[in-house]
């Protein structure tokens, strides 16, 4: 049987027969599904809404918990910094201090003082106006009756915390404001502004008193919520912690305020069918009025829009429900730290409640009325019934047409499909034998035509790829031949070095210069790293190698050798943007000294195996190829038996694993220390093995070069 008839029969079997069976099943399934969907949609959507709300409240609680933990961490860091400044006070410069009066004087105000989005004042009449802040300077002020000049240490401490304020703000994901109030009556706030009301004394604020009475070593941060911010008139949550002086006495309190609006807006609804959702933050505890377990509303949407004077109080309310048994069961579940969902009334309306713990007895609650979900359910039922009817009609018509067109199409396709198959197969076989002159000259206006076009375009590319592969193999072989074959035998030294390139060629370089077997106590070791990868970097590395070998054969200090090579390289690569870092080192075991020069390269590590301590061969110097007349500086120090010197490129400690983590210099040092008793070759091999194991299966992104030198007895 010919191929086209086989194709025809296969198309008939694998398309028409399943189509007929699927059509019949589909008609029956559509009717059944329509009835089931109409009957069960209410229950399904209600359950889906419950699950969505439960997942949302759980995620929101975790986000809020994480933000609060991050805020408490930043507070601890700032508090410790303030306590440190009391130990080592820094004199305050009047030029860096901006007082409240300075913010209200355009001639003395900080240069960046300007309105910013999100910083606004909510007035008692309901109006909202923006106010100007400084993100570069905090404001420093004094409580009524306090003379700042009588407290120079406190003033210096507040002024020195400027960078801590800025750092905490930039690390925050919210518009949290900070304030440090000292027992002396001086205080600083960030972002800086001049909006504090007259007579304001932060020592009288609830958060200050709460920090004095409620903090402890086990609970260093106390939360005060809710309260009215003295500047913006908006409702905030306040976290506060104590600051101690060197004698252990309370020096002041650090506070960070978080807008209640931001806390409530963390709950992003999963879908529009759920409708309006109310957000609560609750504290589960016994109600002092009746002694029963209750839920005190710490935060609610109504609190956000309420306007109150900053000196006034926010009177919290107790959440309640007419479904007493279910409500009590929900409270018990909250008290036990559970996440859950329940159906019960809220404010007289049937609702769905979803709750999750944020902290100890502190809960996030989402409430949505059942009426908003029922409306969506009714609309969904109508859509399902309409779609079911249309689907039945479309299925019947489509099946009839598919049956007719399938027969005709199978016949035509089988003929067209097999027409040029043999020619295509022959061309592929010729290409497989290495004949790159093969070309398909016929055209087909379907996917096979695209295949033919792709084949014709692929052949010259394959030919070019083969040519490039051979060229790269040759370049790799040439570059490998330029590297040292064996480590030199130097009296008193054990040396090993190697390079692992990330591509066929690379820009890493190391060499041993000025080695003379008649003067076997001296050796010059050079390690370099050219920017980039591939052929361009390899060419620059080859050029640098030739220049160093030629120049080092003449007399001169390390400084003159490297400076001369830098002049030549700068003229060649100055406009290309490429450069090379270098570590140049002379070792003399007879004089027991090492001289070195750094040109933008990482310093060499030195391990004293007798003490287990690491040091570095540091020094100043920029990379080669940057400034033509730059004069480099050489350094020297003594060496003694038991020391191990390691010089490498950043491909060692900057190797990354699948999680994006770097190998790091500490791991590099640990391998050297653990194998200090081994030979230089073994130490080097251990480092390469560890980097490879850490990186796998991620592809090596950078060249890795390492030279290990052990100073022997």
In this structure, how is the largest beta sheet organized?
Answer: 6 strands, antiparallel
Shape, please? flat
Query: How many DSSP helices?
Result: 15
If you average the pLDDT, what whole number results?
Answer: 81
Spatial order of the strands forming the largest sheet: 3-5-4-8-7-6
**Record field, number of beta strands:** 24
Helical fraction equals 40-55%
Structural class computed from helices and strand pairing: alpha+beta
What is the terminal separation in angstroms?
87 Å
| Low-pLDDT residue intervals, each spanning 5 or more residues | none
Would you write up a description of this structure?
With 713 residues, this protein is of the alpha+beta class. Helix content is 42%, strand content 24%. It contains 15 helices and 24 strands. A hairpin with a 2-residue loop joins strand 13 and strand 14. Helix 1 crosses helix 9, helix 11 runs parallel beside helix 12 and helix 12 packs antiparallel against helix 13. It is flat and about 100 Å long. The mean pLDDT is 81.
Show the helix and strand layout.
Elements: H1 3-87, H2 100-103, E1 114-122, E2 128-133, E3 139-142, H3 152-160, H4 162-171, E4 177-182, E5 186-190, H5 206-214, E6 222-228, E7 235-244, E8 250-259, H6 260-264, E9 278-286, E10 293-300, H7 301-305, E11 317-319, H8 324-335, E12 340-346, E13 349-359, E14 362-369, H9 370-418, H10 421-432, H11 447-482, E15 493-500, E16 508-513, E17 522-530, H12 534-552, H13 558-573, E18 580-588, E19 593-599, E20 604-608, E21 613-617, E22 635-638, E23 643-648, H14 665-674, H15 680-695, E24 704-711
Antiparallel strand pairs: 1-2, 3-5, 4-5, 4-8, 6-7, 7-8, 9-10, 9-14, 10-11, 12-13, 13-14, 15-24, 16-17, 17-18, 18-19, 19-22, 20-21, 20-23, 23-24
Helix pairs in contact: 1-4, 1-9, 11-12, 12-13
């Amino acid at each position: 049987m010919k191929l086209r008839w086989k194709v025809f029969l296969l198309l008939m079997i694998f398309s028409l027969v399943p189509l007929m069976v699927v059509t019949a099943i589909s008609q029956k399934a559509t009717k059944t599904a329509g009835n089931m969907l109409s009957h069960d949609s209410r229950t399904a959507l209600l359950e889906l809404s419950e699950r969505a709300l439960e997942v949302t409240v759980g995620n929101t609680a975790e986000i809020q918990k994480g933000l609060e933990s991050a805020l408490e961490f930043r507070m601890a860091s700032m508090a410790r910094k303030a306590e440190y400044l009391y130990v080592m006070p820094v004199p305050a410069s009047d030029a860096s201090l901006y007082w409240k009066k300075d913010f209200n004087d355009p001639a003395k105000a900080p240069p960046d003082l300007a309105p910013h989005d999100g910083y606004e004042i909510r007035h008692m009449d309901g109006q909202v106006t923006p106010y100007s802040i400084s993100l570069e300077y905090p404001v420093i002020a004094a409580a009524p009756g306090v003379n700042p000049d009588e407290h120079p240490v406190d003033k210096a401490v507040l002024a020195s915390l400027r960078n801590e304020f800025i750092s905490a703000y930039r690390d925050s994901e919210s518009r949290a404001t900070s304030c440090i109030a000292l027992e002396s009556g001086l205080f600083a706030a960030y972002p800086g502004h001049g909006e504090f009301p007259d007579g304001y004394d932060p020592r009288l604020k609830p958060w200050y008193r709460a920090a004095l009475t409620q903090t402890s070593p086990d609970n260093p941060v106390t939360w005060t919520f809710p309260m009215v911010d003295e500047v913006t008139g908006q409702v905030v949550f306040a976290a506060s912690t104590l600051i101690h002086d060197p004698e252990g006495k309370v020096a002041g309190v650090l506070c960070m305020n978080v807008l209640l609006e931001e806390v409530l807006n963390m709950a992003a609804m999963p879908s529009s069918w759920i409708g309006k959702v109310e957000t609560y933050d609750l504290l589960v505890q016994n109600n002092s009025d009746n002694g029963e377990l209750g839920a005190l509303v710490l935060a609610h949407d109504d609190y956000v829009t309420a306007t109150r004077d900053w000196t006034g109080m926010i009177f919290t309310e107790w959440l309640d429900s007419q479904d007493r048994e279910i409500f009590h069961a929900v409270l018990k579940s909250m008290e036990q730290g559970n996440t859950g969902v329940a159906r019960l009334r809220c404010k007289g309306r049937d609702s769905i409640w979803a709750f999750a713990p944020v902290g100890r007895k502190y809960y996030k609650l989402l409430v949505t009325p059942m009426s908003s979900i029922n409306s969506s359910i009714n609309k969904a039922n109508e859509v399902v019934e309409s779609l079911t009817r249309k689907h039945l009609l479309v299925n019947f018509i489509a099946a009839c047409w598919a049956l007719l067109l399938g027969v005709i199409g199978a016949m035509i396709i089988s003929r067209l499909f097999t027409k040029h198959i043999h020619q295509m197969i022959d061309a592929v076989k010729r290409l497989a034998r290495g004949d790159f002159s093969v070309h398909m000259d016929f055209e087909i206006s379907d996917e096979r035509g695209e295949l033919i076009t792709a084949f014709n375009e692929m052949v010259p590319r394959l030919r070019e790829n083969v040519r490039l592969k051979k060229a790269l193999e040759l370049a790799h072989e040439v570059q490998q031949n330029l590297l040292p074959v064996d480590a030199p035998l130097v009296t008193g030294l054990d040396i090993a070095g190697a390079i692992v390139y990330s591509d066929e060629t690379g820009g890493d370089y190391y060499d041993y210069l000025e080695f003379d077997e008649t003067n076997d106590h001296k050796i010059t070791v050079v390690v370099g790293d050219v920017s980039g990868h591939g052929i361009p970097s390899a060419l620059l590395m080859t050029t640098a190698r030739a220049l160093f070998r030629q120049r080092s054969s003449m007399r001169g200090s390390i400084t003159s050798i490297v400076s001369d090579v830098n002049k030549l390289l700068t003229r060649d690569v100055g406009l290309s943007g490429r450069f090379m870092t270098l570590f140049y080192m002379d070792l003399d075991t007879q004089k027991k000294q090492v001289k070195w020069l750094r040109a933008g390269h990482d310093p060499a590590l030195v391990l004293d195996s007798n003490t287990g301590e690491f040091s570095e061969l540091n020094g100043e110097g920029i990379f080669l190829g940057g400034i033509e007349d730059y004069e480099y500086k050489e350094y020297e120090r003594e060496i003694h038996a038991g020391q191990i010197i390691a010089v490498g490129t950043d491909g060692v400690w900057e190797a990354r694993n699948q999680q994006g983590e770097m190998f790091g210099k500490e791991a590099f040092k640990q391998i050297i220390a653990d194998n200090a008793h081994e030979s230089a070759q073994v130490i080097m091999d251990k480092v390469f093995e560890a980097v490879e194991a850490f990186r796998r299966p991620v592809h090596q992104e950078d060249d890795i070069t390492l030279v290990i030198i052990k100073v022997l007895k």
